[in-house]
Amino acid sequence: MNIVEVKIKANKESSYPIIIEQGLLDNAYKYIQKYTKANKFLVVTNDTIFNLYGKKLEHQNAEFIVLPDGEIYKTMESLNKILDKALEIKLERKDCIIALGGGVIGDMAGFAAAIYQRGIDFIQIPTTLLSQVDSSVGGKVAVNHTLGKNMVGAFYQPKLVLADTNTLNSLDKRQFKTGLSEVLKYAFIEKTCNANENFDLYDFLSKNRAEIYKKNPETLKRLIEICCKLKSVVVNQDEKEKGLRAILNFGHTYAHAIENITHYEKYTHGEAVSIGMKLIFDLAKSTNYISGEYYNKALKLITKYELLTELDFNPDKEEFYTSMQSDKKVSNQSINFVIPTNEYEVKIVNNIDKNTVLKGI
To answer: Whole-model pTM?
Structure first.
């Protein structure tokens, strides 16, 4: 069993463990009841996950709300359905909402927990690689708006994260690769995370591709642990993205625009992120932030994992740029880019002119 402790400096009451192990769903309430005193639980999930794992979270004091599967359902309408169910079953302030699913479910369930009766306990049980390495950790919860991704939300930490690696066996290759995009993101920002440990994630990924794609349990546990440690180090220092935490958005300024202009239907989040990382490496090379040598090294890893790097359509550049300007990372009407500057290092840059950006799209 691998355990990562999230210890937020600014708010010690928001600290919590991430438990990573095979078979956690078989005894989920043993852990859940250790970290919450709730009498009643509302399990938020989608139809795909409910059919796979719903029975494992059945409990005499648990009710389910099952939503449609997909990013297009990450909306205020779905959020209201969760709140309606919470009111219907008379959840009280001491009770708990459990997110069982990927990043979409985790974000919506967490946001519902944050605003229901001004905040009730919330537990994350991520079932995808993307949610286990990234979205379930750090307390970012939100829904999408037609004008931008995750534009309505909050920072609200869970009481516990249970990452059962057995759930990854149900992922098809496309969904597994979606999570790997976020994994590679950590390799490219590792040095800037200011971790005390040197994980050398780039090297780990270079050497363990075969075992990762075989879904070797021990390899996956270590991979998830490294990513969670890197994210927790950042979140511990900057819970509400006042500075350092913005580096976790590497590749995402482009990615969110891609998702928005394609209405969250053409690409998965991870596919948009991998294309976004390629675009930001292109931008960094063209503006001399990185050497050609590092550019080639970075692209070699992205290619090694067979991740998407190109859009398969020609976007309207003005529409694309306008969507980027609607991103949460815009400040004083300038787009903040998390740009690579050296091997595994990034910094936030907001002085790249529009024409330079448009040339690379």
So the answer is: 0.94
> Which of 171, 202, 228 is where one domain is finished?
171
pLDDT digits (tens, 9 = 90+) for 53-108: 999 999 999 999 999 999 999 999 999 999 999 999 999 999 999 999 999 999 99
CB 24 within 8 Å of CB 31: yes
With CA atoms as reference, report the closest residue to 224 among 15, 13, 21.
21
DSSP letters, 145-179, are ETTEEEEEEEE---SEEEEEGGGGGG--HHHHHHH
Instruction: Count how many domains the chain has.
Output: 2
Same domain, 123 and 12: yes
Q: Return d(Cα 210, Cα 168) in angstroms, integer.
A: 16
Q: Please give the single-letter amino acid code of residue 285.
A: K
Q: Tell me: pLDDT of 301 over 70.
A: yes
Catalytic residue set: 118, 140, 182, 231, 241, 245, 249, 252, 256, 269
CA-to-CA distance for 298 and 20, rounded, in angstroms?
A: 28
Cα–Cα distance measured from residue 232 to residue 215, given in angstroms and rounded to the nearest whole number: 24
**CB–CB of 190/199 below 8 Å?**
yes
CB 24 within 8 A of CB 35: no
With beta carbons less than 8 A apart as the criterion, state whether 127 and 72 touch: no
For residues 333 and 325, the answer to whether their CB atoms sit within 8 Å is yes
Residue 176: inside a domain: no
CB-CB contact of 140 with 155 (8 Å):
yes
